[in-house]
Every structure is written in structure tokens, then in C-alpha cells.
From TrEMBL:
Domain DJ-1/PfpI intervals: 2-173
Name used for this protein in its record: Type 1 glutamine amidotransferase
Organism the protein comes from: Streptomyces decoyicus
Family to which the UniProt record says this protein belongs: Belongs to the peptidase C56 family.
Keywords, ordered alphabetically: Glutamine amidotransferase
Gene3D superfamilies listed in its UniProt record: 3.40.50.880
Pfam family, one: DJ-1_PfpI
Length: 177
């Protein structure tokens, strides 16, 4: 199982990167950190700087064909920056176009909204995205994990770090197919 983790250069909620990354590793998979720039990305523990992580590939070097699925960690600043980067948005959309599973947690659905891939889908997220998702044509639910198959791919979403165990189990199961 090869999983792409798309993040901005800073603002990633660290636990929403490291726990899913560890889940992929524990499942004998290969996680790859993809970002909009080379070098290292800066993770955060909520609003406090945490660790940095080396970028494996940029969005210009990576393609959906190279991966079994895409993981979008949250953090407020991370998806907000990604949705402003046309290359990142195109990378996300390419997984939907290829029918490959995508897993997004917390604020990450902001990038999905920008890619125009949530219309007609059922998602969960951090509660403050509820109106944004509804305005983009999605149905929002307040659940630990939501698995939506009513589209070109399977879309797995979760609300927050407390949901990580269910989130990781759901996307690992889907990516392993």
C-alpha cells in the first residue's frame, strides 16, 4: 500500500500527520510526504510549533498513479494554504478522477471544497466547516468517521484528533483493497 500525504509547508496538525503515517507503516505500507515546496514542513500542536518533517516529493513530481490513496491531514493553516495552490488542488482532484480513495480529517475538507469534489457526497469534519461543506453541495454529518461511496471514489472523513483511531482503521482498510 502506497499512501500520499499532502501537506502545506506549515500549519499541519502534527498528530493528524504522524498517527495516520504510523498506521500506514504498521500496515506494511509506504507513506510519502508530498508538499508544494521541497525541504521540510513545519507541523504544529494546535497553535504551537512542533516538529519538522522532510518532504519526499513536491506536487509537481507526484502523480495519483503512483499511490493507492491520498491522506489529507488537518490543522487550520494547512488546508487553507493548500486550497490556494492550484497545483495542490489539481493533485487532490486527480485522485478523484482516477477513482482512488481519499481520507481527510478535521479542516482538510477545505481543500476538497476547492477541488470541487464534495458535491453530492456525505462528509464529516471539524464542526466549523459544516456550512462551507453544505454550501459546496455536500451533506455534513457529526460522526467519528464517515465513509462515502456515492461518487467516483471512496471518501473517508473524520472530525478531529480524538477520531484518529477510527479514521486510520477506515482508510487503511480502504487503501489495502
Amino acid at each position: 500500500m502506497q499512501a500520499a500525504f499532502l501537506v502545506a509547508p506549515e500549519g499541519i496538525e502534527q498528530v493528524e500527520l504522524t498517527r495516520p503515517w504510523q498506521a500506514v507503516t504498521d500496515a506494511s505500507g509506504g507513506p510519502t510526504l508530498v508538499s508544494t515546496r521541497t525541504g521540510k514542513v513545519q507541523a504544529f500542536n494546535h497553535l504551537d510549533k512542533a516538529d519538522t518533517f522532510p518532504v519526499d516529493l513536491t506536487v509537481d513530481e507526484a502523480t495519483a498513479a503512483d499511490f493507492d490513496g491520498l491522506v489529507l491531514p488537518g490543522g487550520v493553516a494547512n488546508p487553507d494554504a493548500l486550497r490556494l495552490d492550484e497545483r495542490a488542488v489539481a493533485f487532490v482532484k486527480s485522485f478523484f478522477d482516477a477513482g482512488k480513495p481519499v481520507a481527510a480529517i478535521c479542516h482538510a475538507p477545505w481543500t476538497l471544497i476547492e477541488a470541487d469534489v464534495v458535491r453530492g457526497r456525505t462528509l464529516t469534519s471539524w464542526p466549523s466547516l459544516r456550512t462551507d461543506l453544505r454550501n459546496a453541495g455536500a451533506t455534513w454529518v457529526d460522526e467519528q468517521v464517515q465513509i462515502c461511496t456515492s461518487g467516483p471514489n471512496t471518501l473517508i472523513t473524520s472530525r478531529k484528533p480524538a477520531d484518529l483511531e477510527a479514521f486510520c482503521a477506515a482508510f487503511i482498510s480502504e487503501f489495502s483493497h
